Write a sequence for this structure.
């Protein structure tokens, strides 16, 4: 085998210079199922020559090397040369004599004829890509279009949407009820893993099976409709039902969806029409809807006191829904008016942008003082304000507003921008070429706009997609607005509570936390692992021999809290630590806490990082716990990551139990993180 | 002082079978298999089992005798018929059943297609459902997908957990009154996980008593003696070349009541007693499903293979050997095993940090170690473990400690040859 896997071949197989797929290129994929080789090649052709090409391969070293060699020789070559180069490779591979220096590594394949197919695979993909019909070269999505044109596994009816005047969910429910129809509302209340629809997504199901909205990429909808119809068909029976569904990978993969998670969908009969009207009204003032997962009833709540106050605050602040399990399971959804998109100038692009913005969940407002551009009927979904922008903008803009100037008239754009750049709007964009932007920035600077404000201007507005025409430009601007909005959200903050109060009665007279392991006191290892995993803040709970333990950690950037009741057991130490962590109001609040045991020195920083990463990747409500061990001895370990909503329960812990009972009571809320190292498993104390 | 163990050393280097189990001396077993004569280390029994001499002899004798079963009155044909039907009885007996419960097919793939098209499709309506699992081989996935698509029925997939074990909690909500059939894999060809048939049958009884249990037993029979009537399966499907028989033959076991409800996959000569312009009189019994000339030598070989297995198969030994294989592999730096099902039997699949399975397989092949690389016709299960292709080693009756040594040495050699010079922790290969 060393004859085949020479250094030149292996080095070539590791090259990455062509390992990407150029955009706007024809592409094709070739497979060699016998060995699991799969390669996608993309090539851009212009005037009969291959301008640029590249590949993505999940393949053996021979295939990778051959792909790099192919790109080296084909890039810039005329199309007519492709066949000749492929033939040269084939001859080299069969005869064992290299026809050129570049083909030398492949001559050894003559002794391994079964590997010839691996070397030819990239060429097979390239020639398929070049042979593809003209239309697909430009749109390069034939495979995707074919996949989506396949009949779905289960066919459900979908009511046709009216072209204009898209109704939001509650408006639709109100209209259905007003028409004398009955309907049910399905809400996505929990997600484990990935799902194409965010938490809180809804479907509205009419009593005859027509439905609007979605809770998945299409594989779960029919089951939800059935569940809704079951409720609707029996008005005297249960008013709600909740069920878990698996997002089907096999169907999802065919259309390129990032599916594969598990979702919980709660279906409930719609409230009566007065309540729906109240819910719609509550959107204007900012409130939440509390949906009972036991009986489907709901009520509107605002910030204030009560057992749900913390959850309500969290939902209002984050604009994301939240499931709360105590005292009874409820789903808390934000009711807020949609964020605004203020368009300065009633242009053609503004028309397109208005319609798209509504679909993306924004409320568009067009500010246009000129009569022709502001004629009624030009903007079906937007509010039109016939005024000069600088007069009305202060009243329109808040922190959830995006502003875009589209007029190309500096006398209209500039004053609007000056107001917008000084406002709390999260996105300010201006249309126009780069040269126009330079001039604009210079003018605004001359007018006294400070550099910090000028830095907030997105110009030319829109993501760089080379859009042509009003529709594509509008799309690029909307995309940039959404991207900016999402980037502003704060990533989750995870802190750690290290239990070093040493109150275990089983341990005996020696304080094992200070026992040296690998040259350092035992407790230091756990603390270091948390610090190395960049968990912050790290809070150490002291108790037994507090001064000695503190001294052992004095040089580390941790905070200490003393648990006066440490003799009562671990529960009080956890409660103490969590209380201290939750109470720090000066900095951004902690979203989750790792409870680490000071006497587990073999937990590694990478294990902690893995637990935190799993938490960050999933819905924010799951407890994350490591799992390790082989076969029958596989079990849950420590540290356990507790999201904020469990802080109240943790602060009520007593005795020596730790969080075990909470874990036992919530098996569906635990995300198991496999760790291939026994350091996360606790061993029995021994004197 | 804590007694924390520092390493993953979970057993001694030598293979130690559980107490009461015969020692793993494979020399006697090796003698049965001519393919091993030149020292081949064969670790791909999950793809196809090597054929022992006695089975080769049985097939040869059948062909020397000749004749076409169910096609003639003269003594030669009668002997062929007797050979075929005798093989049917023997195959049935090996599974604890009766002759009329066995239908011969070309393979397990054909058997699953037969059950899907012949039994399930006629009773599948829009709104009905079929339940399969993530561990399904493509042959236990595609037939169901096809008939669901044609009928507008729903295909539901029960998931596995991180160990590769069927997650009963994910299966339960999929079972309801709409389910027509549940298609399971008895033993996975990727992880060796054994499906808990009893527990699944209990769930079926409680939530979906109308659903049929269809079991793909291709990878189970080489290691486990299956009593089909007691297994709760409505259809038990398997193939010959995995149970020391020849290729080109397989069988499906089902109670006669199930066969009475089913239609044949292939229709033609031998499946009918009479055909006229307006009528068909179907043959009785298994013949209805065996149109075309029977593969009599194949059936004889299948019966001989099952008989050979019956004499030499030892489930405890298989489990111990598979566990030993897992342990040895897990100790090779850079190996990531796919799944970790308790009590696994047969196959162990893994990826080797940074190296593509094809390259590793090629190095092993040159050293005389035969393993399988690729997607093992189980893309969904590999996707569950987040890989695109993997290396699979699987044990057979002839597997010995020396075979495992050769595999591990080969992996080390592959790494030395193929790994990039700045090897640290390479990215897991996808």
């Amino acid at each position: 085998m060393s004859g085949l896997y020479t250094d030149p071949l292996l080095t070539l197989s590791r090259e990455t210079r062509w390992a990407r797929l150029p955009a706007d290129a024809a592409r094709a994929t070739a497979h060699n199922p016998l060995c699991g080789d799969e390669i996608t090649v993309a090539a851009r052709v212009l005037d009969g020559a291959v301008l640029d090409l590249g590949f993505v391969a999940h393949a053996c070293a021979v295939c990778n090397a051959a792909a790099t060699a192919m790109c080296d020789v084909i890039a810039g070559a005329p199309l007519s040369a492709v066949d000749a180069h492929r033939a040269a490779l084939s001859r080299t591979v069969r005869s064992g004599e290299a026809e050129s220096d570049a083909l030398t590594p492949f001559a050894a394949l003559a002794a391994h004829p079964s590997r010839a197919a691996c070397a030819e695979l990239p060429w097979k993909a390239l020639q398929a890509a070049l042979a593809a019909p003209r239309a697909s070269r430009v749109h390069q999505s034939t495979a995707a279009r074919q996949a989506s044109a396949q009949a779905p596994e289960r066919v459900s009816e979908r009511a046709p949407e009216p072209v204009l005047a898209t109704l939001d969910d509650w408006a639709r429910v109100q209209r259905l009820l007003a028409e004398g129809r009955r309907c049910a509302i399905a809400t996505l209340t929990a997600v484990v893993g990935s799902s194409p629809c965010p938490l809180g997504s809804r479907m509205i199901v009419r009593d005859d099976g027509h439905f609007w909205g979605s809770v998945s990429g299409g594989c779960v909808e029919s089951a939800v409709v059935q569940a809704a119809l079951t409720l609707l068909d029996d008005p005297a029976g249960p008013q709600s039902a909740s069920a878990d569904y698996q997002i089907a990978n096999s169907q999802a993969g065919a259309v390129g969806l990032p599916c594969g998670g598990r979702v919980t969908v709660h279906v409930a009969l719609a409230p009566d029409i007065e309540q729906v009207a109240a819910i719609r009204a509550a959107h204007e003032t900012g409130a939440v809807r509390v949906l009972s997962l036991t009986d489907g009833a709901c009520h509107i709540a605002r910030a204030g006191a009560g057992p749900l106050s913390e959850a309500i605050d969290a939902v209002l602040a984050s604009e994301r829904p939240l499931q709360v399990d105590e005292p009874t399971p409820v789903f808390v959804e934000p009711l807020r008016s949609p964020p605004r998109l203020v368009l300065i100038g009633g242009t053609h692009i503004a028309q397109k942008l208005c319609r798209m913005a509504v679909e993306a969940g924004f409320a568009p407002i067009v500010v246009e003082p000129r009569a022709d551009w502001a004629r009624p009927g030009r903007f079906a979904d937007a509010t039109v304000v016939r005024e000069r922008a600088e007069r009305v903008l202060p009243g329109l803009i808040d922190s959830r507003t995006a502003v875009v100037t589209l007029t190309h008239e500096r006398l209209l754009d500039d004053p609007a921008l000056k107001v917008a750049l000084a406002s709390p709007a999260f996105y300010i964009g201006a249309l126009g070429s780069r040269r126009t932007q330079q001039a604009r920035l210079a003018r605004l600077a001359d007018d006294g706009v400070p550099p910090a404000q000028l830095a907030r201007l997105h110009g030319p507005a829109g993501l760089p997609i080379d859009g042509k025409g009003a529709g594509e430009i509008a799309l690029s601007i909307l995309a940039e607005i959404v991207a900016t909005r999402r980037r502003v959200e704060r990533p989750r903050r995870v802190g750690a509570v290290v239990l070093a109060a040493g109150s275990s009665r089983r341990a005996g007279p020696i304080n094992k936390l200070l026992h040296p392991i690998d040259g350092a006191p035992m407790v230091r290892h756990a603390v270091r692992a948390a610090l190395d995993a960049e968990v912050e803040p790290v809070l150490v709970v002291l108790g037994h021999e507090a001064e000695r333990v503190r001294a052992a950690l004095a040089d580390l950037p941790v905070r200490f809290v003393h648990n006066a009741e440490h003799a009562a057991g671990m529960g009080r130490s956890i409660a103490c630590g969590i209380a201290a962590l939750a109470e720090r109001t000066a900095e951004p609040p902690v979203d989750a806490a790792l409870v680490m045991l000071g006497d587990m020195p073999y937990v590694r920083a990478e294990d902690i990082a893995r637990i935190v990463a799993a938490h960050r990747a999933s819905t924010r409500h799951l407890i994350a716990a490591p799992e390790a061990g082989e076969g029958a001895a596989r079990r849950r370990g420590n540290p356990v990551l507790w999201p904020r909503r469990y802080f109240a329960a943790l602060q009520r812990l007593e005795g020596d139990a730790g969080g075990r009972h909470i874990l036992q009571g919530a098996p569906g809320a635990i995300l198991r993180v496999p760790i291939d190292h026994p350091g996360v498993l606790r061993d029995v104390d021994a004197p | 002082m804590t007694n924390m163990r520092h390493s993953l050393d979970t057993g001694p280097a030598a293979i130690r079978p559980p107490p009461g189990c015969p020692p793993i001396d494979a020399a006697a077993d090796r003698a049965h298999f001519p393919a091993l004569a030149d020292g081949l280390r064969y670790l791909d029994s999950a793809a196809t089992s090597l054929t022992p001499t006695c089975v080769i002899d049985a097939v040869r004798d059948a062909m020397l005798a000749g004749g076409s079963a169910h096609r003639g009155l003269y003594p030669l044909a009668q002997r062929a018929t007797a050979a075929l039907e005798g093989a049917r009885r023997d195959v049935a007996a090996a599974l604890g059943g009766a002759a009329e419960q066995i239908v011969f097919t070309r393979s397990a793939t054909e058997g699953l297609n037969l059950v899907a098209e012949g039994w399930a499709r006629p009773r599948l309506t829009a709104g009905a459902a079929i339940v399969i699992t993530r561990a399904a081989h493509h042959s236990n996935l595609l037939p169901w997908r096809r008939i669901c698509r044609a009928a507008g029925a729903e295909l539901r997939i029960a998931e596995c957990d991180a160990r590769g074990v069927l997650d009963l909690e994910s299966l339960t909500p999929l079972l309801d009154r709409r389910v027509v059939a549940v298609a399971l894999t008895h033993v996975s060809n990727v992880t060796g996980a054994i499906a808990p048939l009893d527990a699944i049958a209990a769930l079926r009884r409680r939530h979906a008593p109308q659903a049929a249990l269809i079991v793909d037993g291709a990878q189970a029979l080489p290691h486990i003696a299956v009593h089909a009537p007691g297994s709760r399966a409505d259809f038990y499907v398997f193939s010959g070349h995995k149970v020391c028989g020849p290729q080109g033959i397989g069988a499906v076991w089902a109670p006669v009541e199930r066969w009475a409800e089913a239609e044949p996959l292939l229709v033609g000569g031998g499946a009918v007693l009479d055909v006229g312009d307006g009528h068909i009189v179907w043959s009785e019994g298994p013949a209805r499903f065996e149109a075309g000339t029977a593969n009599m030598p194949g059936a004889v070989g299948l019966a001989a293979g099952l008989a050979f297995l019956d004499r030499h198969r030892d489930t405890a030994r298989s489990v111990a050997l598979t566990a030993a294989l897992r342990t040895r592999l897990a100790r090779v730096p850079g190996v990531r095993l796919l799944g970790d099902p308790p009590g696994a039997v047969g196959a162990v699949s893994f990826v080797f940090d940074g190296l593509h399975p094809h390259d590793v397989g090629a190095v092993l092949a040159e050293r005389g170690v035969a393993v399988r690389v690729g997607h093992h016709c189980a893309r969904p299960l590999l996707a569950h473990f987040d890989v695109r292709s993997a290396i699979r080693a699987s044990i057979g009756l002839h597997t010995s400690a020396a075979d495992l040594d050769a595999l591990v040495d080969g992996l080390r050699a592959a790494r030395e040859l193929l790994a990039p010079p700045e090897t640290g922790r390479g990215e897991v290969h996808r």
Observations:
- The CA atoms of residues 161 and 571 of chain A lie 56 Å apart.
